[in-house]
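Researcher: Batch entry, complex prediction.
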Amino acid sequence: MSDKKCLLRADNLNVYYGSIHAIKDVSFHVDEGEIVTLIGANGAGKTTTLNTVAGLMKPKSGTVTFDGKVISGIPADRIVSLGMALCPEGRRIFQHMTVRENLEMGGYSRPGSEIEDSIEQVFQRFPRLKERRKQIAGTLSGGEQQMLAMSRALMSKPKLMMLDEPSMGLAPILVDQIFDIIKELHQAGTTILLVEQNARKALQVADRAYVLETGSVTLSGTGAELASSDSVRKAYLGG
Amino acid sequence: MTMFLSNLISGISLGSVYAIIALGYTMVYGIAKMLNFAHGDIIMVGAYICFTCLYSLGLSPAVGVLASVMVCTLLGILIERLAYKPLRQATSLAVLITAIGMSYFLQNLAQMIWGANPKSFQTVIPAGNLSIMGGELKISYVSMVTIAASVVVMVALSLFVGRTKMGRAMRCVSEDKGAAQLMGVNVNLTISVTFAIGSALAAIAGVLMCSAYPTLKPTTGAMPGIKAFTAAVFGGIGSIPGAMLGGILLGVIEILGRAYVSSELGDAFVFAVLILVLLIKPTGLLGKKIHEKV
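Model: Structure tokens for the complex:
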């Protein structure tokens, strides 16, 4: 940890939904070049944590530091251009726009002249999206929509890519594909913070992992450590 | 036959005004997810500003129209900032009631400034007719200018929303505010721009309407406001082409209803259409069904 640069750091985050204390004193960090995963059951606060980091929600207390700058309190639309992208839960692509327009929106924070090259890169990586570039995004299949959502997030050229449940609702073969893409992105130099309910897969690719339970971090360690931990195996890996 | 054509043209002309107003309703609804019932009263303010420029200050019609557009644009932004923005997280009922309150506030403010007596608004468009078909069919310049203006407005707006970066951002905000923010879209700015455009359109509608129906009083905007809202729902609220289509159809239905069925029941036809549409196709003619994929 000491020789690597810390890219993202959350310190004692507390987040409320009205009077519900959703995130309690959560702290974690992601070093440059790592894949870090947050695992936990439904309602443990994984999505809330990501949304808070991305600036969609404000923490009541605690700080988020990204790339040496405190970003908690800065609205989401200004955080994007600092180099952080969130591919949100449920994909949330723009259903009524074309595939290409979705990608253009992904590059909204960048100068217009650079967008074309990035779209070309996306099309090279995902020829399927190129074939469907003029299609209305809402008519894509689930797997294609996830590809589009990830590509859209990549269009902002993020240093840190946060993925919220990228494998949700996908057939097993597509889940494998999504994880292959995550590995590829990582090899290409993108730091990744991954939230997954598919803990087995997530721990396989992750350098380090945190376990969230009802809003608090209860365990942390390397992916392999957690995968072999008894309590994690019982609770999240089906024995 | 010429009678019918003449009615049809006045219907399209009236409908064009409804369409321009409905565009403001539908854009604000699409982006801020609220019904801005004060929108109709912006029309009235626009007409009064133009009236004041022409009669009290003796300025030219062009300056009057420009001033009215500018004042209404600022007014729209101001209303959003002061009255609606603090309610961004509130229930939709609270926002709706605030909008109705804003509507009465504007009417009373106008009454304070300009008095309750109707003013006779003289047209900014030269009076007179174009005779065609050997003089049998007369089309007033007001109708022609109104229809032409609405075509220009619609084309310009479609290009803006379809082709520009801000337009694209607006479409994103209307689909998913959170996702739009994650792309780097400043949602508050987008909402302000929407109110600005809607209010500028309302000013144009106000001047056009008062040129055709030249009485101006503080409640002038109320009825066309409600009808334009009906037009927006008719066409499918949130849809820009829907507002255009709904507005024009509604104007035609109103005028033809007045001419051929009963001149007293013109307004009733308009609202009967609303009820029918809501019964048969609740999303409106061009409205999109909201489907959510998980």
